[in-house]
Design a protein that fits this description.
alpha/beta, twelve-stranded mixed beta sheet, globular, about 350 residues
Length: about 350
């Protein structure tokens, strides 16, 4: 059962009911959230776009949780680079739901079985507590969807050609999973595979983040996919968009490339940054993300600091909106994560 199944009109009916219920759920259990809604004069919503959103930055400044202290199972932190981080509070039920729904989302492109997995990163990443909360947590989270893991980079962060060759010798004749942040995949997998004639044709690549460095090198998302296919044989490549403030929800690139899609339990709204009105198809603006997963904290309707555009509705690989992320809002804090990577000297 795929989580990319609902046409937009049907999705919005279901989401409005669930999200409106979450508004009241969090309002009853989170004092700061209740005060924000009261100050805004919120009295109800007739559409998903009318639901009250929180700026994602608020999670850096306020403690926003809808569970008692003794129910906190896990606290996640974001990857900001200025010392300010978001703190996201999960109870056991919320943590289990986000893991299950992330898995269901990835199954749309990976299938139901765990595949041998190549991690385009270094094991030493897990020793650095500063980066562990962001990049390390991302790698470890994705690692649960693979098996027989091999790190593509050595302890110093340089490509481990011997490890790559051994992995491909053992697993390269059948489907295998590759995960890494986009810039690392380009620099330390694509270029190495191209230069050494490695065959990645049975790989399924899941990647995210780090586009800024590629833009600086004039590598567009389209060129990324094309050159991977031409030079390494890897044609199954899926970018995704997500954030710790809505953990478990990712917006996944479809098989044809070029657009991100919303799972059935989530959606995006593009807002005009001057009027806050919803933008029509083709008009860029600020990305608002909605998801029914955040039950332990009020992260169900969030206004991000990212710019995006909806390209079409119910006209792509999967139903619903298909969209692209265009970059960060000017002067918005850099998220860090893979873009804090520094190549080994």
């Amino acid at each position: 059962m795929t989580v990319f199944s609902l046409p937009q009109a049907e999705r919005e009916v279901l989401l409005l009911k669930e999200l409106a219920g979450l508004v009241e759920h969090h309002r009853e259990r989170c004092g700061p959230y209740d005060r924000i809604l009261a100050a805004a004069g919120y009295a109800g919503a007739a559409t998903v776009a009318e639901l009250p959103w929180l700026p994602v930055r608020l999670f850096k400044n306020l403690t926003l949780k809808s569970i008692p202290d003794d129910a906190v199972f896990k606290v996640l932190t974001s990857s900001g680079t200025t010392g300010e981080v978001s703190r996201i509070y999960l109870d056991k039920a919320a943590a289990a739901t986000q893991t299950r729904q992330l898995g269901a989302t990835l199954q749309a492109v990976l299938g139901p079985k765990r595949l041998p997995m190549l991690l385009v990163d270094t094991r030493s990443l897990l020793k650095d507590r500063r980066s562990f909360s962001a990049r390390g947590a991302g790698v470890l989270g994705m690692a649960t969807f693979g098996r027989e893991h091999v790190w593509a980079l050595d302890e110093a962060g340089a490509p481990d050609l011997a490890a790559l060759r051994a992995f491909l010798a053992a697993h390269g004749q059948a489907p295998f999973l590759i995960f890494g942040f986009t810039y690392l995949v380009w620099l330390h997998l694509y270029e190495v595979a191209r230069d050494h004639g490695l065959d990645l044709s049975n790989g399924i690549l899941i990647h995210s983040g780090g586009w800024k460095k590629l833009v600086d090198q004039s590598v567009s998302p389209e060129a990324f996919r094309r050159r991977l296919a031409q030079d390494t044989g890897l044609v199954h490549s899926h970018n995704f968009y997500g954030m710790v403030e809505q953990i478990g929800t990712i917006f996944l690139e479809g098989p044809s490339g070029g657009s991100l899609y919303c799972p059935d339990f989530a959606d995006v709204i593009i807002r005009n940054p001057q009027t806050w009105a919803e933008q029509p198809v083709g008009e860029p603006g600020l990305i608002e993300v909605v998801s029914t997963l955040p039950t332990s904290y009020p992260g169900h309707v969030l206004l991000t600091e990212d710019l995006g555009v909806v390209h079409g509705i119910d006209d792509g690989d999967w139903p619903g909106k298909r969209f692209s992320v265009l970059g960060r809002l000017p002067r918005a804090e850099a998220r860090g994560c893979s873009d804090t990577y520094r190549a080994a000297a």
